Amino acid sequence: MFTRLKTTTAALVLCASGALAQDSITIGMQLEPPNLDPTGGAAAAIDEVVYANVFEGLTRYQADGSVVPALAESWDVSEDGTVYTFHLRSGVKFHDGTDMTAEDVKFSLDRARAEDSTNAQKALFKGIASVDVVDDVTVKVTLSAPNGGFVTNMAWGDAVIVAPESIDTAATAPVGTGPFKLGRWVQGDRIELVENPDYWGNKPALKSATFKFISDPTAAFAAMMAGDIDAFPGYPAPETLAQFGADPRFQLLIGSTEGETILAMNNKSEKLADVRVREAIAHAINRQEIIDGAMFGYGTPIGTHFAPHNPDYVDLTAQSAYDPEMARNLLAEAGAENLTLTLKLPPPSYARRGGEIIASQLRAVGIETEISNLEWAQWLEQVFKGKDFDLSIVSHTEPMDINIYARPEYYFQYENPDFQALMTELDLAADPAKRSEILAAAQRMIADDYVNGFLFQLARTGVADARIRGLWPNSPTQANDLTGVSWAE
């Protein structure tokens, strides 16, 4: 519906005369979101549609990874670091015309931290002791202890501000405060966004946007080449990027993401409870072979759950270096020479392609795998929620998320009180040097325990029409932020 005119002489004449304004865009996505409520779902595809476009938080990420004011125009912090007083922008309205006030902030934060909360990142809110409304545009958040990362936590998609009047239907009819609102969701095909004429902030250049779902890499290539898609920020066929790079009609968007791609291991599985078995799996993996074979060279090897572009990253890849002989010896020590493990794979090509490579590498040291290719909803149900798996492959694209290893109930079920204590210490630390020291210790601890097989940092491999400006080259969070996107004149 919103695809630009791209053929016929008439279209060219209209463009040349200025009669046809380029104010719409069609974005390709490999995965369709299971719902559109970022406060009630774990799938990255949710934020990729709605973050900054439909929903906004008190703060927000920018393209360079910095966190800036959003619905809160400023805030004060008490001397002891436990009380944050947020001063909200006045005149902000939700898409349904209702006012966004401090009551909505209180509702959103209280809902996210409630005992029965379904928020996928509930830990972001666990340190909140109380949320108090001072007046319509002022809200006071009291923490149980200082948290140097609290303002950053509020920039996550899981912390966007929602309203009690519309939250019950947010999964299919989201109502936010952003510059775009839902036009139509044709499930299995596309989501259409239209402009919010009552937006409180600067109006985007775009009037409408369509997110088109194309799971097959070959079909993604064909759609870009035909001009059916204007941009594919998470392009799923890296083997064809060179072809786009040589074509002046296109631009490549190559950058970094927050996506630690891991071979997730169920630490409570009887077969994987012995650290020697997990270490053997880690040494059986040839990371570069996976990067070359599944990602055509795009990706940075990692040895722990931390982004290499972060100043606090510790390179621990040598600790789990490819060593099949060591892997076999460790399996023998653990009495696990004849091991068969389930390997459940979600749809992304890094998982499906990488899974075949890893299965071959594990077979070489005596571990057989039973591969199941799951759709995204199945993966969320069986692996993420049901914990019914031995191995899986997934990219964790949330920013600075090493704290997931402090959650024993998380899907890979790592339980280490010492690590949990480190994360508590990190929350309390405000001094940058101290935080760096703690983060280094945390990286080493999960590497020492071989919690997961740490594979590579997912590269941002995108392709777009050469005339498009403002798409993020990097992914500091899970987003296709359209607020600064435009077409060149």
Write a structural description.
The radius of gyration is 23 Å and the shape is globular. The longest helix is centred in the last third of the chain and has 17 residues. By secondary structure, the chain is an alpha+beta fold. It has three domains: 135 residues, Periplasmic binding protein-like II (D-Maltodextrin-Binding Protein, domain 2, 3-Layer(aba) Sandwich), CATH 3.40.190; 116 residues, Alpha-Beta Complex (Dipeptide-binding Protein, domain 1), CATH 3.90.76; 200 residues, Roll (Dipeptide-binding Protein, domain 3), CATH 3.10.105. The chain is 27% helix and 23% strand. The two termini are 22 Å apart. Strands 11, 12, 13, 14, 15, 16 and 17 form a seven-stranded mixed beta sheet that branches. The N terminus is likely disordered. It contains 13 helices and 19 strands.
Lay out the secondary structure.
Elements: H1 9-17, E1 24-29, H2 44-50, E2 59-61, E3 67-69, E4 72-77, E5 83-88, H3 102-113, E6 128-135, E7 138-143, H4 150-153, E8 180-186, E9 190-195, E10 208-213, H5 217-226, E11 231-232, H6 241-245, E12 250-265, H7 275-284, H8 287-295, E13 300-301, H9 324-333, E14 339-345, H10 349-363, E15 367-373, H11 376-385, E16 391-396, H12 417-428, H13 432-448, E17 453-465, E18 468-469, E19 486-487
Parallel strand pairs: 1-10, 14-15, 14-16
Antiparallel strand pairs: 2-3, 4-5, 5-7, 6-7, 8-9, 9-10, 11-17, 12-16, 12-17, 13-17, 18-19
